[in-house]
Amino acid sequence: MLVGYMRVSSDGDRQSTDLQRDALLAAGVDARHLFEDHASGAKDDRLGLAQALAFVRAGDVLVVWKLDRLGRSLSHLLAIVNALKEKHVAFRSLTEGMDTTTASGELLFHVFGALAQYERALAQERVVAGLAAARRRGRIGGRPPAITGEKLEAIIAALDGGMSKAAVCRNFGVKRTTLIETLARTGWPSPSLPPDVPT
């Protein structure tokens, strides 16, 4: 059985699924087996897509007019098609000519999978390189420090004067975890001072 899925964005002028519907019907999809969404592709809660994925059974083929009608990204598209494969459901995109029921379509799908993996590796590489560059410039990744300026100077002075961390937290109104993280960033205590002296 051929099952069709259509989507148009809900943004801007009213859009119609007529073009997609005509293409899917011409490809042999029964009008009773069409599902549609009027929603952005970035949305996770697309009711029509959820219904289509729940409707298909082993041996069926999910058909779309174009790849970008199904997935919000390449990785999302691949996740959906892999989920279909686990149910023994094939996938066909009319515009790109992808059809996992054929050897060439299956090959194209694997190429897409390799590209998605390459894209993830590049993204991870950029993050690691960015963090390394920031460290070389003296910046540390993550959230900005919660305690800065005169307040931080007063806290360090109090600790150097013998006040315990617990007392600092009470007197300055800071959480212990926030204090510890901030002190770790500053390198306190100095080697000549004990880490904590009870008051």
TrEMBL record:
InterPro entries: Homeodomain-like_sf, Recombinase_CS, Resolv_N, Resolvase-like_N_sf, SSR_resolvase. It comes from Allochromatium humboldtianum. Keywords: DNA integration, DNA invertase, DNA recombination, DNA-binding. SUPFAM superfamilies: Homeodomain-like, Resolvase-like. Residues 1-138 form the Resolvase/invertase-type recombinase catalytic domain. This is Recombinase family protein. GO terms for biological process: DNA integration. Belongs to the site-specific recombinase resolvase family. The active site is at residue 9. Pfam families: Resolvase. GO terms for molecular function: DNA binding; DNA strand exchange activity.
